[in-house]
Design goal:
about 250 residues, mainly alpha
């Protein structure tokens, strides 16, 4: 890698980390950046992204927990359900055609970008207790989709939690919590399959962690409407680029 490329990776990691810490989603942009900008094979990009989430998620969970923004009852059910499905999702990603994975990521990006641009729901301050069956279903689905596409667990889980009237900070905190076991278990499967670039993952992990440390106080201090719009626009552009490139290869 050239010095310029290393700097670009570092800056991107910090920016995406700030987005993750501030609005709960942003990690989904990491795989498109690695594939579209660096030309890394999508399977290796997914593997590196997932491993880079592990230390950054630890930091995010600690920061959100210290501010009382993680409801641990819900987190326990979500994480328990995500463990087996994350393993299945990682193995499915190893077997799936690269073009199919890129198309799935592109569609996921478009959906997430549209969601981020929608006006945020006004949720009551009182926290709604979700049923265990609901949490187990959400955790299982999030684990599979996140491990399959390399998207952060929060990106998949956060929109659903907000639709279920979970307060914003609690929803972001739960998204950070579930991302940790998903990334850890999927990374074990990817390392065993020999598709892990540990050096790239380590570099991304450092910059993501720095960005999350910057972004988390923003989430607890500033209105998020503008941040959501900026992030939604970036996600839409990345999704469109991913789908266009996939279509061009057909």
């Amino acid at each position: 890698m050239t010095v310029g490329l290393i700097v670009a990776i570092a800056v991107t990691g910090v920016v995406i980390g700030i987005a993750i810490g501030a609005v709960g989603i942003g990690g989904v942009l990491l795989v498109p950046f690695l594939t579209l900008t660096l030309g890394i094979d999508v399977k290796h990009a997914i593997a590196a992204a997932l491993l880079s989430y592990v230390p950054s998620c630890v930091v995010a969970v600690v920061l959100y927990a210290r501010r009382g923004s993680i409801p641990w009852r819900e987190a326990a059910f979500l994480c328990m359900a995500a463990l087996p499905t994350a393993w299945l999702g990682a193995h499915a990603a190893q077997q799936a055609p690269a073009g199919l994975l890129e198309a799935a990521i592109g569609v996921l990006l478009l959906a997430g970008g549209i969601y981020a641009l929608l006006p945020p729901r006004d949720v009551a301050i009182a926290r709604r207790m979700l049923a265990p069956a609901t949490l187990l279903g959400l955790g299982g689905g999030t684990g599979f989709v996140s491990a399959l596409t390399g998207a952060g667990g929060a990106f998949v889980l956060l929109p659903v939690l907000l639709l279920l009237d979970t307060p914003v900070l609690a929803a972001i905190g739960l998204g950070q919590a579930i991302a940790l076991p998903i990334a850890g278990l999927a990374s074990i499967a990817n390392i065993a399959a020999g598709i892990m670039d540990v050096g790239l993952a380590a570099g991304l992990a450092v910059t993501l962690t720095l960005g999350i440390a910057i972004g988390t106080p923003i989430a607890h201090a500033l209105p998020q409407r503008l941040l959501r719009r900026l992030l939604g626009s970036a996600v839409l552009l990345a999704g469109g680029a991913m789908l266009v490139r996939t279509a061009a290869r057909l």
